[in-house]
Every structure is written in structure tokens, then in C-alpha cells.
Amino acid sequence: MRRFVLAVVLFALVVVGVGEFSSGPAVAAEKRSADAILGSPIYSQGDAERYARKQGCTKYIMQTIPIYYDMAPRRNIAPDVLVAQAIVETGCGRYGGDSRPWNMAGIKKGGIVGDEPRDFERPDSAREGVRMHINHMAAYTGKKPIGEPHDRYYDARAAQQNRGYWVRRISQLGSGVWATDPNYARAIRGHLNGM
């Protein structure tokens, strides 16, 4: 009987140990509410792609969607939220403001407060633009960057630390935290609801 109990205990330890040391993802995705930024996506990559096509989004959005769904979960940031935000920030990939392609979120260079085209980051590729956007959101949410972050990451992180809290909800992004537009969060959620 003692051998049986010992075998059961050893088996349980092996099962628990295998689960803890498996080669799965580094961060387990959390289920998220409709206003949450962190956690697993509510809308699939296919949902996001169908919605973006329906909205007439350009290649600057379409090429980034699979990259968002690949990279954002590494920091437990919901990729559908970032896609919706990129649609808002870039005008469906048309870049009507001062920001230029592949800057998916209107991110300025570190230390810059101006609004001239030269003041904005200019990533070389879709992948770099998405990584920069994820890292920028990571600065606001208290997450570590993926690779070497852009200079503005440090400015955004310091500003958020000075505010005394990490952003967790889409509704926290307006009113001067990420954007000054009081309808900013509503615009992001509108695109999410369309997905």
C-alpha cells in the first residue's frame, strides 16, 4: 500500500512539474472584458481582417494584422485592441496626419513635443511598426518591451509611472493619457464592435 501511495505522489509531482516546465507561451493570456487592453483577443485574426477589408483599409493595416496576432500576445496585450487603435490612428491606413507608414499609432520620437512630420518615428517595415506600437502600449501598461524599444517608450513609461498607475482599459487612453481626443476610446471600441 505504501508503494502505491508513493507512486501516486510521484506521479502527481511529475504531472505538476511537466506543466510548470513546459515549453508553452511565456505569458498565459487572460480572458478580457470589452474595455480591457490586456488578455486574449475577443475577435479572431479572421474577424479583424474581414472588418478591415469591409472598412477599405489599405495595405498598411492589412499587412500588420497577422503580425499583431503573432506578437502582441507575447506581452499579454490583446491584438484586436491594437488593430482597432491602428485603424483609428492611421485613418484606415491612409495616414492623413503627420505620421507616416509604418508608424501604426502616431508615435513621436523620444523627447519630441512638436507635430511636424520629422517629429514622428518612421519604422522601416510593417513588423517594426507593429513591434513599436506593441512596445508603446507596453510602456503604458507596465509590460516589458519586445527587443530594444524606440526612444519614446522610455518617455511614455516615465509619464505613466508619474501618473501612479498602469493603463488597463481602453477608456483610460483618452483625456491626455495617450490621446487628447475625448472620443478616442469610443472610436477604438466602435471598431472593435464592428469586428
Description of the molecule:
By secondary structure, the chain is mainly alpha-helical. It has one domain: Orthogonal Bundle (Lysozyme). Helices cover 47% and strands 0% of the residues. The chain has 8 helices and no strands. Helix 4 (65-71) runs antiparallel to helix 5 (79-90), helix 5 (79-90) crosses helix 8 and helix 6 (126-141) packs parallel to helix 7. The longest helix has 19 residues, at 2-20. The radius of gyration is 20 Å and the shape is globular. The model is unreliable at 1-30 (pLDDT under 50).
> Which structural category fits the helices and strands?
mainly alpha
Overall shape: it is globular
Q: Enumerate the spans where pLDDT stays under 50 for 5 or more consecutive residues.
A: 1-30
Indicate the proportion of strand residues.
under 5%
CATH class: Mainly Alpha
Total tally of structural domains: 1
Name the CATH architecture: Orthogonal Bundle
CATH topology: Lysozyme
The helicity comes to 40-55%
What kind of sheet is the major sheet? Answer: none
List keywords for this structure.
mainly alpha, globular, disordered N terminus
Explain the layout of strands and helices.
Layout: H1 2-20, H2 45-54, H3 59-62, H4 65-71, H5 79-90, H6 126-141, H7 151-163, H8 184-194
Quickly describe the structure.
With 195 residues, the chain is mostly helical. The protein has eight helices and no strands.
